[in-house]
Amino acid sequence: xxxxxxxxxxxxxxxxxxxxxxxxxxxxxxxxxxxxxxxxxxxxxxxxxxxxxxxxxxxxxxxxxxxxxxxxxxxxxxxxxxxxxxxxxxxxxxxxxxxxxxxxxxxxxxxxxxxxxxxxxxxxxxxxxxxxxxxxxxxxxxxxxxxxxxxxxxxxxxxxxxxxxxxxxxxxxxxxxxxxxxxxxxxxxxxxxxxxxxxxxxxxxxxxxxxxxxxxxx
Length: 218
Known about the structure:
Number of domains: 2
Number of helices: 8
Low-confidence stretches: 5-20, 22-26
CATH class of the largest domain: Alpha Beta
Strand order of the largest sheet: 4-1-5
Helix content: 40-55%
Shape: elongated
């Protein structure tokens, strides 16, 4: 009986030590918030990024970290933000690969949306697949709105051609504009706006000429 009790105690000691002592391989306590941002730092979209979201994100990052970061209730303290940024070179295929990289390899906590409608349309399924919230603040299109009910992690905040073009037509009518010309880029954004402008139900002014912008100029 005595030997049996000793044997049982020997079995229990490792269990107690496991419960009371921190695991040797336990993950270190979180000390920062990691945000992934795949955007166009070069190529035809880079100037737009620099003038809009690029500048806004950098200012926000500097101001928040200057105040110690963002308060996280779980840890009872502020955590600084680390921005992990990659250049997609204004290429959709490169962007989607890098989006998966920041999620799967860098294991960021959040992702920022790329710049542009076509980029956002391609990034949305990737973010939704891995259950990362994606706020589309630099793009928007009718085609994306149509598939968003199946992507609960994706949100857009900008208007699209179906709302903007009729309003523009109204402004032109008030100013007695008789004819108009269209200059557009042949991507998802440009094509949707062109098609909406050519739709007589949303645009009452004759289109005198259409111009396809040369992307080599950008």
